[in-house]
Amino acid sequence: MARAVKTAHGSLVMGRRLARLARHLAELFPPGARVLDVGAGSGEMAAALLALRPDLRIEGIDVLVRPGTAIPVRAFDGHHIPATDGEWDACLLVDVLHHCDKPEELLAEATRAARVCVVVKDHVAEGPWDHAVLRVMDWFGNRGHGVVLPYHYWSAARWKQAFEVLGLNEACRTEALGLYPFPFTWLFDRRLHFTVRLEKAAS
Length: 203
Known about the structure:
By secondary structure, the chain is of the alpha/beta class.
């Protein structure tokens, strides 16, 4: 079973996931936005976004800077984003917050650094089965990159609470992302993933 999941994830999933997710995310940024990709990894997601939205300007930060990243990526400590308040038009966090010991802290930092919006792609887990599936996906997708795996998956209610505490409004949310081909979509898609554009509440 483990070998089958690994093979499916590597050969069938990653290219499709990158292309489909980039299309979803590309719709969430304002024209000409300067975007900070928090937890940019290899930079491939940002590069896929730029192919669809050449008007964007994207730089990245990560706790582990890989060689040969597709966009410029700087190191940061995983807690404090090296930016002044509102320095960036938008902050992007793709499957980053569930890797944090204190997700609320990093989300608050992204909110501080972003002038217009924060764009998040992450997971939703409503029970033990969801947690189990996400743990398998996380392990196969990240084990070779030295990524910390605390498996912090939140319920929809917990996400809503975190957004409300930070004064963030969900301007656009999508759950049917279609990241996985049939029949894997039944196991790995469902409503385990979401994208959302978060905007600061008017003061």
